[in-house]
Amino acid sequence: MTLAGDDATWSARFWTGNDEPAWAESVRVASPEFRICWNNDLRPAPHPTASQVRTVSSWGDATQAFIARTRVLVVGVGSVGLDVAQRLAATGIETIGVMDFDTVEALNLDRMIGATRLDAALHRRKTDVAVRLMESAATADNFTAVVHDLKITEPDGLRSALEYDIIFSCVDRPWPRAVLNQIAYADLIPVIDGGVAIVTFDDGRLRSSIWRAHTLVPGRPCMVCNGQLDLAQVRLDQNGHLDDPAYIARSGKESPSSQNVAALSAGASAALLAQFVSLLAHPGGLGAPGPLRFFLSTHHLEHVPASSGKYCPYEAETARADERHNLATAEGTKAQRGDSTTTPPAPGLEEAARLEQALAEAINGLS
Length: 367
Prior knowledge:
By secondary structure, the chain is of the alpha/beta class. It is built from 10 helices and 14 strands. The protein has a single domain (48-366), classed as NAD(P)-binding Rossmann-like Domain (Rossmann fold).
């Protein structure tokens, strides 16, 4: 690697036994003010499109070219992840990956905005729905959606995640979040994590809602240090105990909450996207903030006073990459909530799906 030029740009090359080196396409500089140094010959800056005029006016051509070339992965495309993926596509990012192993069910439809009753009836994969909506929203001329029907807790899922520059963590389980927490430090890939929790009174009335957002990079506290990840629950999740009602009842512990509603999940996705813009566009010359927490009942935004623990096991693995303690295992391919199974569609649904596809192709042909 070489640091040169007035703008402190990094370049990198590597040898594989040949006399001539192969040049790297880019070099990531992981910090709260995230940078990528691009090899413009290998990955040229895209020209802004007519659909991006207002986006470019917000931060200029140079920042737009930087954001557009950044490869982004969204892990978990439920209520929050699906919204994030569409808005990233609308921003002009050229390559977006989506990772999820689950299918759409009727109970998802009050949160997955853009998923249809037909998606639920056909048990379509959430990643397929995400691709359809991203392609509809995309403003880049050369948009590519990459599908990973995998779990981040399995080796193939982990390997796929390492191909990206930034990762959004939109999962609600301790084990997947622990793997993503580790990636941020061991592999120097920034991870933007957060979510929403709904608190109710005993009679069912809404007490409050809390959403959090934080960017995991060296120099910022990890999920354990900022109180968003319980190491004891990670082990329980790996052993399948968090899906065992009898175990939960005996232990007195609570299983991870998956409560969410469309009207509130938008707040969580907005908080994650704001972290993304802060990390890449550096508004006001500042980078990603520390952990943030918003209380709906009092409408109070709090900077969480978290700091890195002296003996944090995750931050101690910074830049260790393949030498890390591997949290992604073959057991990760087994069900955490049960591997998705598809039910044969009811009569007439296959024909409805064909008509839907034909209509989509006709619309695309007009654009």
